[in-house]
Write a structure and sequence with these properties.
With about 80 residues, the protein is of the alpha+beta class. Helix content is about 40%, strand content about 20%.
């Protein structure tokens, strides 16, 4: 799958991004992360930081964090 979303259960910012991807019928894979920042090594490996959400668009070579930036990217590129 070309789109991967790293997210945390109960995170409102993650939910906003996931909801918008679903509304736009964008297929994506969710990777659920640990609640403890110190246990988010995979997120750090792919994005350089431990916060979520993180979206990876493999087809376009894009990795980004911050829900506002991700939503803008989704609207501009995937909608």
């Amino acid at each position: 799958m070309a789109i991967t979303l790293y997210e945390l259960e109960g995170c409102p910012y993650c939910e906003k991004v996931a909801d918008r991807l679903t509304e736009l019928d964008v297929e994506y894979e969710s990777v659920w992360v640990d609640a403890l920042h110190s246990d988010r090594n995979e997120v750090k490996r792919v994005s350089g930081q431990r916060g979520v959400p993180v979206l990876i668009d493999e087809a376009r070579g894009v990795t980004m964090a911050e829900s506002a930036n991700i939503l803008e990217y989704v609207e501009r590129t995937l909608a």
